[in-house]
Amino acid sequence: MILVTHDPSRQNCQGSDSASLIASVRCAIASEVPFDVTNLSYRVLGDSIVIEGNVVKRSDAELIHRIAEDIAGQGRVIMRVGGINH
To answer: pTM for the whole thing?
Structure first.
């Protein structure tokens, strides 16, 4: 697996940078979490990645956020993922 980490020297991710960042985050999340994440969507907004969807527990959303920040960088992940059961 090839992971592309966020490069703060780039003002905005565009084109292949955006696709690579999304693919890296999606792949890392899918391989690291012990639950289904096929209902999540990913997109780039400026120099951040936006993750949207629902998970079963709030702690699952927190795990996803930590994994995404490991790749995109701290403060560069926008989560719109809610837990169905708190």
So the answer is: 0.78
